[in-house]
# Entry
Amino acid sequence: MRQRPVMAAVGTVALAVVLAGCARGGLAPRGPEAERILDVTEILVIAGGAVALLVVATWVVAVRRPGRGDDLDAGRDELDPDPVERGLVLGGGIVLPGVVLTGLFVLGVWTMSRPPPTGDLVVEVVAHQFWWEVTYRQVPGVEPFATANEIHVPTDTDVDFRLRSEDVIHSFFVPQLAGKVDMVPGRVTSLTLSADQPGVYEGACAEFCGMQHARMRMRIVAQEPDDFAAWADGQTRPAQAPEGPEEVRGREVFLARSCVGCHTIRGVAEEGDVGPDLTHLATRDEIAAGTLPLDESNLRAWIDNAQSIKGGARMPPQDLPDEELDALVAYLLGLG
Amino acid sequence: MTTTATTTERLAAAWGDQPGILGFLSSVDHKRVGRRYLVTAAVFLFLGGVQALLMRTQLIGPEAGVLSPEQYNELFTMHGTTMMLLFMVPAESAFANYFLPLMIGARDMAFPRLNMFSYWVFLFAGLFMYAGFVTGDVPDGGWFAYSPLVLDEFSPGRDMDFYAIGVIFLGLSTTAGAINFLVTTFKLRAPGMTVSRIPVFVWGIVAIAFMILFAFPSFTVAPLMLELSRALDMRFFDPSAGGDPLLWQHLFWFWGHPIVYIQLLPSTAIVSTIIPVFTRRRLVGYAWVVAAMLATAFISFGLWVHHMFVAGLPQLTTSFFSAVSLVVVVPSGIQFFAWLATIWLGRPRWDSPMLWAMGEMLLFLIGGITGVMVALVPFDSLAHDTHFVVAHFHYLQAGAVVFGLLAGLYYWFPKLTGRRTHRGVARLGFWTTFVGVNLTFMPLHWAGLWGMTRRIATYEPGLGFEVPNLLATIGSYVFGLGLLVVLGDLLWSWRNGPEAGPNPWGAGTLEWATSSPPPDHDFARLPIVRDRYPLWAGRTTPDDSGALALATDDDLALAPPDLHHEVALTAGPEGDPQQVRTMPGPSFAPLLVALVLTLLSIAMLLRSANLVLTACGLLVVSVGAWFWPREGS
Ligand SMILES: [Cu+2]
Ligand SMILES: [Cu+2]
# Structure
């Protein structure tokens, strides 16, 4: 008997662990869109679970009751169906699903029908194999600017995403904030979402888009509106001028090498549009579409040979002399 | 006594094949076709299974580094293609080919040569798709081959050509098979087999045959457009030239959704066949079950868009398809409750086929419920393209379909081999497989809800995907082990099992009226059908005496079809005898034409105009040879 409280404690802890473990992704919504989806999910799980229990219970009774025993000839006469037949086949097969499914359908449509998005902020996202180009055009008080893979949004604000693709089909998916929406070449799709709390929300490309589909991730960083405004203000400025000689050398290398053909650094070289905008690279936590923490050694390795890290990414190996590589890394890490 | 011996001898002479390799290559016997389908499909199941285990090994933990992204993408593409096209549908064709004629009391399929042709095409198309492994061009754009990813620009090389040409080629086999099943059922039923006496399994095959005829054209046109885009730079899917990437998705899913039911219906039809035998009760609500299967076939063409709920289509569209996706649940519910009612009335016996059938029911239930969940657009926007969906459809396909097929295999094994399986080992195989399939796919529901997307070659640590993936990988090994036990049991019993006799389960349909395995001519005298379960009529238990009515020459009112290579044609819903027809015998033509088609596929793959023209010329010649009227035949 003394074991009871112990058992109860163990049980509670176990349950807490399980629940904490469950509170991830779509099951840990941090915005109204995702919450709405979780509501539907809960109703579906309860309704589905109830139907499953009912069916299994019927099965158990059917198996265990004595039955009417063998009779190979019984039931030949179709016109006089057994009451069991009428009850189970029509009741269980038609009435039960009819009622449950109608209810669920109404729920689904009702959840989906909501006023068209009236975003306070519009963010354009263009998907590429295998990274995200992000453009802010309508942040009040600041010029349009571009960034990549890390999308900042103010909390408690409806943000309209305009989604496009330049190559193959991708899909925009941040489970804690909203359902996913495909990005189809030749079309613009849209999604409105809003985050309740500041935080970093993991996202990913959800449609198979080629070799590095698995490493096409992203993050949405939700900030208090003031913090967001400060961030946007920083992003809108041209790139930081190099400070020491090493950084100056790095900028020269950037301009002299192939980088300029693909990357833009605002105020330095603005032609490149194949790869991510690097103007404020150092403000991002990760590179390579949210899959590689930004630090000196990773950046060096990436520039040296991105293929060894993310084979199939659209950035060729660079093969630079060590001296140039060091300078380039120093310069890029200074782009705050 | 002498007369019967002569009769049997003459029948054997009329229906048998030549001995040796020539006999093997020229045979058109439906049972041989069925067996070959079965063995070939099993080989493809093995290959697809190995691919699955490799992928699960790669996903056992974050960044496991077992496979490169490229290899992973190749494996999931081939795994999907193999299981969908080279395992499930052919395995069902195997049962249909072997048992459909036996169940309706016929001596062969309506078009025996076309039937063997279907098999050869299936075999060669399968080999063709796998040839990429030899040449190093394994398709890696997904079995769903979404444009523009699979166009030349993003998938250079021959990889996706193996896929596109392979599936067009294979479609011929499936379509020819479907026509054969339909005509056989409509024209070769034993005298007296009215529509309401057709066994439910045959109804299931009729339903999917109709579906195949309506669905496969779409899946012939779409890959053809893909191939034209790749080889001749046509722009069906290119928005900059007025095309649309979503066109591919519409065409693909117009086939790709029905195919799911094409796979599922035979499996549920097998369950509807087995439950009555092991509860000693007729199937309750036969008419409802048949109507439900036909309704499924029809409705399944109205919900392809539920694979495109997040593609940015208008809300009215998605709502409509959401509603239809829910409606299609009702026929499944009817079948389910008909099974429950049958068990309710009778007393179940737990022989191996029944175990697998009950496993099918449970897995079907779980997969069906998650199917209802993803039919709702809001939930789908979370679950779509995550591992939740992987879990959902594997419950149906690796679960319900595989269990249904294995139920059928255990049920008909005595008929196929004349022997019974080992009860204990069969049980071990069942329980291992059952635990394995649940352990593999149950945790993946969670992984999906937590945000784990599909078709990813790896995942990062720290996202919480570790535990469900570890469980799933362990589960997949258990699953594989279970299937090996089953295979071992079947192989061992095939040689060493105890003799089964004609009707070991006391079943009621006609395939059990002939010896196990059946003779070349199936039935010495054609049965006359007066009941839906001809072997049960007037009996309470299988031990009660009673005799199956056999056709006399008078019944057929025509020349006796007994002694020659002939079958009886029947007409109309009542199955009235109509005429006696001589069947075509063994021939090399089906093999020849299939080989020429293989050449044509290779020519298209090589994009060689000369070779294509040569192959077309050979095609005309070989088809001409096939149909050339011959003296005396
Ligand atoms: Cu992508
Ligand atoms: Cu579907």
